[in-house]
DNA sequence: ACGGATGTTCGCGC
DNA sequence: CGCGCGAACATCCG
Protein backbone atom coordinates (compact mmCIF):
# COMPACT_ATOMS: atom_id res chain seq x y z
CA UNK A 1 0.00 0.00 0.00
CA UNK A 2 2.80 2.44 0.32
CA UNK A 3 3.45 5.74 -1.31
CA UNK A 4 3.49 9.08 0.39
CA UNK A 5 -0.30 9.47 0.77
CA UNK A 6 -0.76 5.93 2.08
CA UNK A 7 2.17 6.30 4.47
CA UNK A 8 0.81 9.62 5.71
CA UNK A 9 -2.58 7.96 6.19
CA UNK A 10 -0.85 5.17 8.12
CA UNK A 11 1.01 7.71 10.23
CA UNK A 12 -2.25 9.44 11.12
CA UNK A 13 -3.86 6.11 11.95
CA UNK A 14 -0.96 5.28 14.22
CA UNK A 15 -1.16 8.70 15.88
CA UNK A 16 -4.92 8.46 16.42
CA UNK A 17 -4.70 5.02 17.97
CA UNK A 18 -1.50 5.19 19.93
CA UNK A 19 -0.32 8.70 20.74
CA UNK A 20 -0.30 9.18 24.48
CA UNK A 21 -0.91 5.47 25.04
CA UNK A 22 1.53 3.09 26.65
CA UNK A 23 2.60 -0.13 24.92
CA UNK A 24 1.46 -2.83 27.33
CA UNK A 25 2.63 -5.72 25.19
CA UNK A 26 4.14 -6.27 21.76
CA UNK A 27 3.84 -9.37 19.59
CA UNK A 28 6.83 -9.53 17.32
CA UNK A 29 7.12 -12.48 14.98
CA UNK A 30 10.33 -13.52 13.31
CA UNK A 31 9.91 -12.14 9.83
CA UNK A 32 12.00 -10.70 7.07
CA UNK A 33 10.75 -7.27 8.19
CA UNK A 34 13.25 -7.43 11.05
CA UNK A 35 16.21 -8.09 8.73
CA UNK A 36 17.83 -10.41 11.19
CA UNK A 37 17.14 -8.48 14.39
CA UNK A 38 16.02 -10.69 17.27
CA UNK A 39 12.25 -10.48 17.86
CA UNK A 40 12.84 -10.43 21.61
CA UNK A 41 15.14 -7.45 21.27
CA UNK A 42 12.59 -5.55 19.20
CA UNK A 43 9.89 -6.38 21.72
CA UNK A 44 12.10 -5.22 24.57
CA UNK A 45 12.58 -1.87 22.85
CA UNK A 46 8.83 -1.30 22.76
CA UNK A 47 7.10 -2.80 25.78
CA UNK A 48 6.35 -0.42 28.63
CA UNK A 49 7.03 2.75 26.68
CA UNK A 50 4.58 5.53 26.03
CA UNK A 51 4.02 6.58 22.40
CA UNK A 52 4.90 10.25 22.16
CA UNK A 53 4.53 11.08 18.48
CA UNK A 54 4.43 9.64 14.99
CA UNK A 55 6.41 11.41 12.30
CA UNK A 56 6.94 10.71 8.62
CA UNK A 57 9.93 11.18 6.36
CA UNK A 58 9.19 10.17 2.81
CA UNK A 59 7.89 6.63 3.00
CA UNK A 60 9.24 6.06 6.51
CA UNK A 61 7.19 6.35 9.67
CA UNK A 62 9.24 7.28 12.72
CA UNK A 63 7.59 6.76 16.09
CA UNK A 64 8.97 8.63 19.06
CA UNK A 65 8.76 6.55 22.20
CA UNK A 66 9.32 7.41 25.80
CA UNK A 67 12.96 7.48 26.89
CA UNK A 68 14.36 8.60 23.52
CA UNK A 69 13.46 5.22 22.04
CA UNK A 70 12.12 4.86 18.52
CA UNK A 71 10.30 2.59 16.12
CA UNK A 72 10.91 2.90 12.40
CA UNK A 73 8.44 1.45 9.92
CA UNK A 74 8.69 1.10 6.16
CA UNK A 75 5.62 -0.45 4.60
CA UNK A 76 7.31 -1.83 1.49
CA UNK A 77 4.90 -2.87 -1.25
CA UNK A 78 2.09 -4.31 0.82
CA UNK A 79 2.24 -2.93 4.35
CA UNK A 80 -0.52 -1.29 6.33
CA UNK A 81 -1.13 0.09 9.79
CA UNK A 82 -4.41 -1.18 11.19
CA UNK A 83 -6.16 -0.17 14.38
CA UNK A 84 -7.92 -2.99 16.21
CA UNK A 85 -10.67 -2.19 18.74
CA UNK A 86 -10.67 -3.74 22.18
CA UNK A 87 -11.31 -7.45 21.95
CA UNK A 88 -10.64 -7.66 18.24
CA UNK A 89 -8.35 -10.18 16.63
CA UNK A 90 -5.31 -9.52 14.49
CA UNK A 91 -5.90 -8.57 10.84
CA UNK A 92 -4.54 -10.77 8.03
CA UNK A 93 -0.76 -10.72 7.66
CA UNK A 94 -0.20 -9.00 11.01
CA UNK A 95 3.56 -9.04 11.69
CA UNK A 96 3.77 -6.66 14.62
CA UNK A 97 0.94 -6.09 17.10
CA UNK A 98 1.14 -3.44 19.79
CA UNK A 99 -1.28 -3.88 22.69
CA UNK A 100 -2.05 -0.46 24.13
CA UNK A 101 -2.97 0.41 27.69
CA UNK A 102 -6.49 1.45 26.68
CA UNK A 103 -7.28 -2.02 25.33
CA UNK A 104 -6.84 -1.11 21.68
CA UNK A 105 -4.26 -2.66 19.43
CA UNK A 106 -2.23 -1.41 16.55
CA UNK A 107 -1.12 -3.92 13.93
CA UNK A 108 1.48 -3.56 11.22
CA UNK A 109 0.61 -5.94 8.41
CA UNK A 110 2.61 -7.01 5.41
CA UNK A 111 1.80 -9.60 2.79
CA UNK A 112 4.94 -9.54 0.70
CA UNK A 113 7.32 -8.70 3.54
CA UNK A 114 9.23 -6.06 1.60
CA UNK A 115 9.03 -3.49 4.40
CA UNK A 116 11.12 -2.88 7.50
CA UNK A 117 10.58 -2.76 11.23
CA UNK A 118 13.39 -1.22 13.24
CA UNK A 119 13.51 -0.59 16.98
CA UNK A 120 16.36 1.69 18.03
CA UNK A 121 17.04 4.92 19.89
CA UNK A 122 15.27 7.65 17.97
CA UNK A 123 18.41 9.55 17.01
CA UNK A 124 19.96 6.35 15.65
CA UNK A 125 16.88 5.67 13.55
CA UNK A 126 17.08 9.06 11.90
CA UNK A 127 20.80 8.64 11.28
CA UNK A 128 20.48 5.40 9.31
CA UNK A 129 21.64 5.72 5.70
CA UNK A 130 18.18 4.97 4.27
CA UNK A 131 16.80 7.92 6.21
CA UNK A 132 19.76 10.27 6.22
CA UNK A 133 19.94 10.28 2.42
CA UNK A 134 16.27 11.05 1.87
CA UNK A 135 15.52 14.13 -0.18
CA UNK A 136 12.93 16.76 0.75
CA UNK A 137 9.32 15.74 1.31
CA UNK A 138 6.88 17.27 -1.19
CA UNK A 139 3.97 17.23 1.27
CA UNK A 140 5.93 19.31 3.77
CA UNK A 141 7.52 21.68 1.26
CA UNK A 142 6.47 25.31 1.33
CA UNK A 143 8.15 25.87 -2.04
CA UNK A 144 7.51 22.84 -4.20
CA UNK A 145 8.66 24.59 -7.37
CA UNK A 146 12.00 25.38 -5.78
CA UNK A 147 12.25 21.83 -4.52
CA UNK A 148 11.71 20.56 -8.06
CA UNK A 149 14.19 23.01 -9.55
CA UNK A 150 16.88 21.53 -7.31
CA UNK A 151 15.73 17.92 -7.68
CA UNK A 152 15.58 17.98 -11.48
CA UNK A 153 18.84 19.88 -12.02
CA UNK A 154 21.95 18.29 -13.41
CA UNK A 155 20.59 15.05 -14.76
CA UNK A 156 19.22 13.97 -18.13
CA UNK A 157 17.57 10.91 -16.57
CA UNK A 158 13.83 10.58 -17.28
CA UNK A 159 11.83 12.94 -15.09
CA UNK A 160 9.69 10.09 -13.80
CA UNK A 161 12.77 8.18 -12.66
CA UNK A 162 14.08 11.27 -10.89
CA UNK A 163 10.75 11.89 -9.15
CA UNK A 164 10.92 8.33 -7.80
CA UNK A 165 14.55 8.71 -6.66
CA UNK A 166 14.12 8.97 -2.90
CA UNK A 167 17.39 10.87 -2.51
CA UNK A 168 16.01 13.64 -4.77
CA UNK A 169 12.37 13.71 -3.69
CA UNK A 170 11.19 11.60 -0.77
CA UNK A 171 7.85 9.84 -0.91
CA UNK A 172 6.76 9.75 -4.53
CA UNK A 173 6.38 6.26 -6.01
CA UNK A 174 5.27 4.71 -9.26
CA UNK A 175 1.63 5.71 -8.98
CA UNK A 176 2.06 9.28 -7.78
CA UNK A 177 4.81 10.01 -10.30
CA UNK A 178 2.63 8.78 -13.18
CA UNK A 179 -0.41 10.68 -11.94
CA UNK A 180 1.47 13.93 -11.33
CA UNK A 181 3.07 13.83 -14.78
CA UNK A 182 -0.32 13.27 -16.40
CA UNK A 183 -1.79 16.23 -14.52
CA UNK A 184 1.17 18.36 -15.64
CA UNK A 185 1.04 17.19 -19.26
CA UNK A 186 4.69 16.16 -19.10
CA UNK A 187 6.14 13.11 -20.83
CA UNK A 188 7.52 10.62 -18.27
CA UNK A 189 10.70 10.15 -20.31
CA UNK A 190 11.42 13.88 -20.59
CA UNK A 191 15.04 14.56 -19.57
CA UNK A 192 14.78 16.07 -16.09
CA UNK A 193 17.14 19.00 -16.60
CA UNK A 194 15.48 19.90 -19.89
CA UNK A 195 12.26 20.99 -18.20
CA UNK A 196 11.73 24.72 -17.84
CA UNK A 197 10.11 26.92 -15.18
CA UNK A 198 6.64 26.56 -16.67
CA UNK A 199 6.99 22.76 -16.74
CA UNK A 200 8.11 22.80 -13.12
CA UNK A 201 5.22 25.04 -12.15
CA UNK A 202 2.79 22.59 -13.73
CA UNK A 203 4.57 19.61 -12.21
CA UNK A 204 4.50 21.15 -8.74
CA UNK A 205 0.76 21.67 -9.12
CA UNK A 206 0.31 18.12 -10.46
CA UNK A 207 2.18 16.60 -7.54
CA UNK A 208 0.28 18.64 -4.98
CA UNK A 209 -3.06 17.80 -6.57
CA UNK A 210 -2.37 14.09 -6.90
CA UNK A 211 -1.08 13.75 -3.34
CA UNK A 212 -3.97 15.75 -1.91
CA UNK A 213 -6.55 13.79 -3.89
CA UNK A 214 -5.21 10.38 -2.90
CA UNK A 215 -4.84 11.40 0.73
CA UNK A 216 -8.37 12.77 0.82
CA UNK A 217 -9.70 9.52 -0.66
CA UNK A 218 -7.87 7.51 1.98
CA UNK A 219 -9.00 9.69 4.85
CA UNK A 220 -12.59 9.53 3.65
CA UNK A 221 -13.04 5.81 3.30
CA UNK A 222 -9.67 4.13 3.26
CA UNK A 223 -10.22 2.66 -0.17
CA UNK A 224 -7.27 1.46 -2.08
CA UNK A 225 -6.44 -0.35 -5.28
CA UNK A 226 -6.34 -3.83 -3.81
CA UNK A 227 -9.39 -3.51 -1.62
CA UNK A 228 -12.17 -4.04 -4.06
CA UNK A 229 -12.75 -0.37 -4.71
CA UNK A 230 -12.63 0.99 -8.22
CA UNK A 231 -9.36 2.38 -9.49
CA UNK A 232 -9.25 5.97 -8.19
CA UNK A 233 -6.43 7.09 -10.49
CA UNK A 234 -6.52 9.02 -13.76
CA UNK A 235 -4.02 6.99 -15.78
CA UNK A 236 -2.36 4.46 -13.48
CA UNK A 237 -3.59 0.97 -14.31
CA UNK A 238 -5.74 2.27 -17.17
CA UNK A 239 -3.95 1.02 -20.29
CA UNK A 240 -6.33 1.16 -23.24
CA UNK A 241 -8.91 3.32 -21.50
CA UNK A 242 -9.64 6.82 -22.72
CA UNK A 243 -7.63 9.71 -21.31
CA UNK A 244 -9.93 11.70 -18.94
CA UNK A 245 -8.78 14.90 -20.64
CA UNK A 246 -8.65 14.13 -24.36
CA UNK A 247 -10.01 10.62 -24.82
CA UNK A 248 -6.93 9.11 -26.46
CA UNK A 249 -6.17 5.55 -25.30
CA UNK A 250 -3.76 5.46 -22.37
CA UNK A 251 -0.56 3.59 -23.15
CA UNK A 252 1.47 1.39 -20.83
CA UNK A 253 5.21 1.13 -21.24
CA UNK A 254 8.21 0.25 -19.13
CA UNK A 255 10.53 3.02 -18.01
CA UNK A 256 13.40 2.44 -15.64
CA UNK A 257 12.11 -1.05 -15.05
CA UNK A 258 8.70 0.10 -13.88
CA UNK A 259 5.35 0.10 -15.63
CA UNK A 260 4.27 3.60 -16.49
CA UNK A 261 1.05 4.93 -17.90
CA UNK A 262 0.64 8.05 -19.98
CA UNK A 263 -1.59 9.79 -22.47
CA UNK A 264 0.08 9.68 -25.89
CA UNK A 265 -1.32 13.07 -26.89
CA UNK A 266 -1.68 15.18 -23.71
CA UNK A 267 1.72 14.46 -22.23
CA UNK A 268 3.96 16.04 -24.82
CA UNK A 269 5.85 18.57 -22.70
CA UNK A 270 9.56 17.80 -22.71
CA UNK A 271 9.05 14.66 -24.82
CA UNK A 272 12.39 13.22 -25.91
CA UNK A 273 13.17 13.21 -29.60
C1' DA B 1 -1.86 -21.06 -15.10
C1' DC B 2 0.71 -17.23 -15.71
C1' DG B 3 1.84 -12.46 -15.36
C1' DG B 4 2.08 -8.62 -12.59
C1' DA B 5 2.16 -5.82 -8.23
C1' DT B 6 2.25 0.90 -4.63
C1' DG B 7 9.62 -0.65 -3.06
C1' DT B 8 14.50 -1.15 -2.27
C1' DT B 9 19.01 -2.98 -3.08
C1' DC B 10 22.76 -5.13 -5.32
C1' DG B 11 25.64 -6.78 -9.06
C1' DC B 12 27.17 -6.26 -13.79
C1' DG B 13 28.39 -3.87 -17.86
C1' DC B 14 29.22 0.23 -20.63
C1' DC C 1 30.82 8.48 -11.27
C1' DG C 2 26.34 8.11 -14.19
C1' DC C 3 23.13 5.16 -15.77
C1' DG C 4 20.43 1.11 -17.62
C1' DC C 5 19.19 -3.49 -16.92
C1' DG C 6 17.99 -7.59 -14.61
C1' DA C 7 17.50 -10.13 -10.57
C1' DA C 8 16.33 -10.82 -5.96
C1' DC C 9 13.35 -10.49 -2.05
C1' DA C 10 8.01 -13.24 -0.77
C1' DT C 11 3.42 -13.74 -1.68
C1' DC C 12 -0.94 -13.32 -3.44
C1' DC C 13 -4.51 -11.85 -6.91
C1' DG C 14 -7.02 -11.46 -11.24
Strand order of the largest sheet: 1-6-7-5
Number of helices: 8
Helical residue percent band: 25-40%
For the CA atoms, what is the radius of gyration?
Answer: 20 Å
Summarize the main sheet.
4 strands, antiparallel
Mean pLDDT: 95
Principal-axis shape equals elongated
- Give helix and strand order, one letter per element, not per position: HEHEEEEEEEHHHHHHEE
Structural class: alpha+beta
Residue stretches low in confidence (pLDDT < 50, at least 5 long) are none
Report the end-to-end length measured between terminal Cα atoms. Answer: 35 Å
The number of distinct β-strands equals 10
Write up what this structure looks like.
This protein has 273 residues and is an alpha+beta fold. Helix content is 30%, strand content 22%. It has helices at 4-18, 39-46, 122-127, 129-132, 144-152, 159-163, 174-184, 197-221, and strands at residues 23-28, 51-57, 60-65, 69-74, 79-84, 94-100, 105-110, 116-121, 251-255, 258-262. The strands form 3 sheets. It has a 4-stranded antiparallel beta sheet. Helix 1 packs across helix 8 (197-221). The chain starts with a helix and ends in an 11-residue tail after the last strand. The model has no long low-confidence stretch (mean pLDDT 95).
Features:
273 residues; alpha+beta; four-stranded antiparallel β-sheet; 10 strands; 30% helix; DNA-binding
